[in-house]
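Data availability (excerpt). The following record was deposited with the supplementary files.
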Amino acid sequence: MSARGNDRKTDWITSLLAALVCTAIILTGYELVLRAAGAEPNFRDNQARWSFVREAAGRDQSSDSIALLGASRIRAAVSLSELESRYPGQSVYPLGYIGRSPCAALQDLADSTDFRGTIVVSLNANWVDCRPSPYQMHRTVVRYHAEWNWARKIDGQASEFITQNLVFTDPHHSIRHLIVNTLEAGTPLSNKDYEITRKNRQLEFDFAPFSAEDLAQMQRRSRRAYIRRVGAGEGKRPDRWNAGRSLLSDAIEKITARGGQVVIVRLPTSGPLLRAEQEHFPREQFWDDLVDALPATAFLHFADDPSLSGFETPDGNHLDHRDAARFTAALFDAIERDGVDFKRP
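Predicted structure:
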């Protein structure tokens, strides 16, 4: 190779290294600016993060372990740190998934594990239709059994490391958001995301920045989402209701037969969403039927307990993260008053 060729190769390598160094400096600076502005790692939901928890729960055969099933409502309402303080040394498995009903997850714990602790299930009447759908956990459960292996674990761990240490990889802080914020709000930095998922799968909603008009709009969206689910087939046809109730009953019987406990809870909702729930699934006809039919260890409806019914759901569906610890204490106090022992040897 000629001297000129060597020089060109050296120049190309030098330019590449300089570009990499400049990119690293820019991204490091952006990361520091985001952190200084209050940005936090947001782990969000994905298959791998749920699968890590499911795998650990599947190995657990302790009678004092606690599993939490449901959708985003229980993820936001139950404070994991409060539970860990209340029941030190006991394992807690947050197995809820945003937007998905718990039927398939409960069946999975009943059929594919020897879990014998206490399972707290957040259940709505419209979730009793347990047929596979985008609103159910079936696909998540099937993928866990079919695809969860060492390669996906490594990939999941790498993803968590990146999320923990590089906030700028969050789509909420993408270049697109920088441009939109600059054009619309006059500042390039995004406001702190009001919905944060912690590494332990704790879901936190911060409604403080929103106006009354914003919250009213959120409440209307919660109602529309509920109506879509009802319209998509999570209905009250007697055949589907009876079939779903039978599946839930069978799963609960299997868990309690081996010494486990299953607690069914109805968590707070309010505003247009609560009115739509009452209209489409009147409590007297549906929830009360579940109480009579399912062999659960205990049932708890938030409206029946003054310590629970006073909590607000600003968007109609979720508690603010500032209320989660107090609500958790009140909820588990109420469950224990029903005779459920979470500290069994």
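Summary of structural features: The chain has a mean pLDDT of 90.
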